[in-house]
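[Meeting: bench + compute handoff]

Bench side (C.D.) handed over the final construct sequence. Compute side (W.E.) agreed to return the predicted structure before the next meeting so the bench team could plan truncations. Sequence as handed over:
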Amino acid sequence: MNPRAPSRWYKAGGDLLGEIATARPGQGEAYVWFVGQHGFVVCLGGLVFYVDVILNDLFDGDGNSLRVYPPPFSPDESQRVDYVLCTHNHIDHLNLDTLIPLAKANPQARFVVPAPLKKLLSDAGIAEDRVLAARARESMGLPGEPVELSPVPAVHSRYVLENGGRETGDLDSLGFVLKGDGVSVYHSGDTWVTLPLLDALRIHAPIDLAMLPINGTDWERTAANCVGNMNPLDAAKLARAVPFDLVIPSHYDMIAGNGENPARFAEAMYALCPEKRFHICALGERFVYKKGD
């Protein structure tokens, strides 16, 4: 992290951890905190889920920090977290420098990863019985919990090579649908949009709250081996095609050279589906979703 970079956090550190620890959403409610890139903290059904939360610095091959702003807090702090969900094995979504200290400091936390990645975590020292293997289109009843977890395919740009074009079963990249207290929350992971993805999402429709990446891609990033996602226009078209009640754009702000202006997403939403709701989060801001509001 560049020490001269200004902090962008609305709330961070102990203040943010304390707010998460005391969160008690009611029936028909979910609390969401945006913590950078595609990372979210979701409080739903009395549980706290970390989804693609990265709490360590990131470095390029020359040892230079890739982060535009620091993590909100340290992974080795005691914190309220029940499940840590990682959508795929890229350093800004699944990072052992976050997961290992987080697991040590928070023995109650369990981890959910695409099935092919379970061994990666157990080999790193996270007990095998704490790691749940997720498979596309196979819903998971979290043991003894009031929230249902449904993995859906995430169509990252290399998915044909990684998965042979399959969009079911043991995929390397996933999205997750969480359902609890009458609210459904979709985190897409890194993905493009395909017709099979639309079909998978419509099975779970209507979906109350969706987090979608908007950073897109271009030839410079492709040449630098940076894997792309849907862009703002793609995300707005997805919001128009699937009955999402509210969309939060993400994956546009943490790594220099791989960003996007979320105002372009707002412009696309106003142009294509002005009746749809969306919210652009500040870092560390608590967003309260209330069904029917």
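W.E. noted at the follow-up: The first helix runs from residue 13 to 21. C.D. will use this when planning the next construct.
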